[in-house]
Amino acid sequence: MAFVTLKDMGSDFHRLERFDGGDFVRWQRKMHFLLVTVKVYYVIVNPRPPEPGENEEESVAKTRERLRWDQDDEICRGHILNGMSNTLFDAYHTVKTAKELWNQLERRYITEDATSKRFIVSKFFDYKMVDGRSVMEQFNEIKSILDRYSQHKLALDEFIVVTSIIDKLPPSWKNFRNNLKHRKEDINLDELGTHLRIEEDLRKEEKFMVVEQNDYYSKNTIIESRDAIFDESRFQSLPKQVEQKEGQRDVEENHENEVEPRRSKRMRIAKTYGPDFYIVKVVHFLCQNDERKMKRQRGKNPT
Asked: Are 237 and 214 spatial neighbours (Cβ–Cβ below 8 Å)?
């Protein structure tokens, strides 16, 4: 039995939060379930079997029962100590039995939890949901606060709880919040959680949708749905400037300082002609006219 218990101890403590002095009631319940699972919790509620008298002979069964109780008490005490933070472990590791250790923790921390009830109440009514986080994640956080109500035996009407959670919805859920308020029938906490989960799933699917080509939208037009939050950091219009090395910056600065070479005037100004050029053109024109006249005369007076 001891071998099975030690094996379970190594696997179960990975799932148990270390007690650091806060929220003792929750930690105590988890520890209680663990001790019951490994079948050693009985040493806290049942006293140790008595030792035999001086002249009394003890049966083998009684001896085994007492030895088993001592062994399970040590294992139970080890479970409780290993479930504490290092600071609390150093403070309580000298306690001899599991029952004494259990009672000392209750006397100290249940009293402190009783004084923290007013903080739990204010924490629920001051809680506000925000955009940018999952609504269901925040809804579960509120439910964890309400669980602490039951741990401290605080009663709160479910209608008030549901109405308060509806008022805590983030600003982007304004239309959905108003629709819930105008419902004629009341809903409980579980039904509210179902409505929130369905609405959040629909918003995830409809945040960006693709429509077919028609008269108003071109093909593959992306339309942003209602209440969608645009994240500018994900769609930057300007690319980020890449940090350049010192050598690259010097080369670019030298290129900027260089003067563009001067172009030749012959590329930009039309060519001009002097008077000699026009004289040659006139003489050439007159010569061509004389040659045409001579040909016409030869045609009139053939030899």
From this structure: no
